[in-house]
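Supplementary material to the annual report.
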Amino acid sequence: MAALPVAARAVDAVKVYGTGLVEVRALDSVDLDLERGAFTAVMGPSGSGKSTLVHCLAGLDTLTSGRIELGGQDLSGLSETQLTVLRRDHVGFVFQSFNLIPTLDALENIRLPSDLAGRRLDPAWLDAVVDAVGLRDRLRHRPAELSGGQQQRVAIARSLVGRPDIVFADEPTGNLDSRSAGEILEFLRRAVDDFDQTVVMVTHDPGAAAHSDRVVFLADGRLADEMQAPTTERVLERLKRLGT
Ligand code: ADP
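Predicted assembly:
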């Protein structure tokens, strides 16, 4: 069987913060291929390098050595401006804290990155995304008038509407009650199954990781293990075995 195309790849990725006594190897020689059209969860104890890995994969931070490829393009050697354009056109990012603009309504927030980029949005695609996240009757509401779950759905719609090659979500359900978290996870799953998106999600929650196709486990900046077709029970058991 031919290998699935790779959406993002880390090759011997090393990230060192500080020098001398305060040196921290946040990533210690990570090799990872993220397949296109797959939902991958990244797990590991606090401080194991999860955020550093997704930030470097998304081109939001740079490696100390090694390389990151996004959509087949090597990020090393790109200027800040080239990285900004690459992120804008190819990457979506969802944060734990939603990061919406308080003075803009939901629709304006969803459209913002495309409007700033001067890119015409496909109206049919915008409609499909708005309906999929169930925000049709909330489009004129500002973030303060929306629940946490609704705000995160706006953030996810914003990340998807430009049809990025890959969406990174860093603890997207960390600030949500379990019902809203469930809706967000269902939606990320649908983005992969129905819209053919590639999603990479950092999470502490075995139940959240069970929505993914594959879990990669980090420990001390290294890939410690991985699991295909995870279930909550198997993830819990693996975390115990890894001593986290
Ligand atoms: P995780 O997301 O798994 O909690 P992080 O990627 O945030 O882990 O951090 C990995 C390691 O790198 C930790 O030891 C953390 O303290 C360190 N680290 C992260 N960001 C910085 C920074 N900007 N400066 C110094 N150390 C950092």
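The pocket of adenosine-5'-diphosphate is lined by residues 17-18, 24, 26, 44, 46-52 (CB under 6 Å).
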